[in-house]
Amino acid sequence: MDLDFSADQDELRDSIRAVLRNESPIGLARAVTEHRADAEALWATVVELGWPALTVPEEFGGIGLGAVEGAILAEELGRVVAPGILLATVTQFVPMVCATGSHEQQARWLGAVAGGECRGTLAVAEASSSWDPADVTATATLDGSEVVLSGTKRFVFEAASSDVIAALVRYRGDVVVAMVPTTSADVRPIAAVDGARSIADVVLDGVRISVDDLLTGSAGVAGALETATVALALETVGTCQTILDVSLDYAKERKQFGVPIGSFQAIKHKFADMLVAVERARSTGYFAALCVAEDDDRRHMTVAAAKAAAGDAQRLLGKEGIQIHGGIGFTWEHDMHLYVKRAKSNELFFGTTSTHRAHIDRKSTRLNSSHGYISYAVFCLK
Fold this sequence. Notes:
The chain has 382 residues and is an alpha+beta fold. The radius of gyration is 21 Å and the shape is globular.
């Protein structure tokens, strides 16, 4: 297992960062937050560059990269608080279709994504707010050549901007994926903390889809959710990194008693703690992404550790980023709140820090310490 980025991965990261710096400045996130502007121009740009095809297999017209490259994209999107449906399409929708669809279903949906003709998102949570597929209660019932859906999915990313929603439902006892055209569902936007990201509840009651639109590879559901969880953790890391960078720039310029506040020992200690938290979350996140990409048997533990570490980072960086800025950090005019809201809201999706810590605790008690799991879990729980 090679823990260093390859030259191609470094180049991918640098090129994504350069494009997003120009095409998705923080002003775009502010415009979406304040004026409900859309991100269609950004989507058009990324389609032209082929980014939706990043993790689509080559046989379906994609680039054929994996979870690590998807995580790289997610981190860079987090750095700029990018609005729009790209994250959901690449790191949630595509992995789920890859993991649960037949070859014909994959060709149909993934080919459309690769061609920029389909934007998709994933619907998992319900009234319980659980992201565990075992807690799915929405149902699919066969009615002739069609399937009738029932239930409500919560906290769906960019549902209104999507063409199709991959919704987890129960069918004949198994958790499967219903491919729901967005126009057929009742999409109800909800007021979200992060105004730059659209979140909605999706009511499926009475929606009818073809049997061919049911992806029944239930064994792949958990793995696809792990891919999505790692990507969201790395998006949080990207946002936390920007909080650190913006705060550091401010501390170098803001003066008290005639000297920059960054020269004060107390501020230096804050930055040291912030840096450790971000680097810990980043390294844990990419290790998890690599475990997912290589189907390593440690993937379940490392994914939980990655989301927990990202949660720890956002908690510290959100607090210190605002406090270092002082009064201006609390104002609407400063951009800090846009970064903090993205990081804070990500904590609630695909399992909270406490949920993933509990998962690590349960797993670690059943694993042999000779494999290194228990010590790793204890480190992540500190």
